[in-house]
Amino acid sequence: MKIVVEKGIVLKFITYLILSLGLGYVIQFYVFETIFSINNDLWSMLCYLTNAVLATLVFIGLLKYGEKQIDNLGYVFLVGSLLKFMVYLIVFRPFFNKDGATTKLEFLSFFIPYAIALVVEIYFITKVLNAIPVDKTKYLVIEEDAEDVSEEE
Fold first, then answer.
1. Distance between CA 104 and CA 31 in Å, rounded?
2. pLDDT tens digits for range 67-89
3. How far, rounded to the nearest angstrom, does the alpha carbon of residue 84 sit from its chain's CA centroid?
């Protein structure tokens, strides 16, 4: 079974992703500035941009892989999530750890855009997968009626 991609789905994905991450960035910037008096604008923006690029690459990768084979698509999605965390550990954590510890706010600087991008990815992947016709003979489990079982005993 293969994925047949709706025309313009990647553009819709990127549009929703940019709008969602943009709103998240504005809210996070406001909260960090006003409540916590922290200005890590450059690193927050870099976290948002990195998550946008990675989420787009993972989504396109899922669509391309799904055109060939759909059975292992969940594993490809997990590898994409692992890739994002590796980027966090390799690129961002050393910067956040300069003072010897990564604070909760520093972790949230990466995790909030990660979570927003993940929700948008899941929404669109679900939308794509729901459009696939299901081969009921492959996935349908036929249960015997309770009467049939009691007659055999």
1. 14
2. 777 777 788 888 888 998 888 88
3. 9
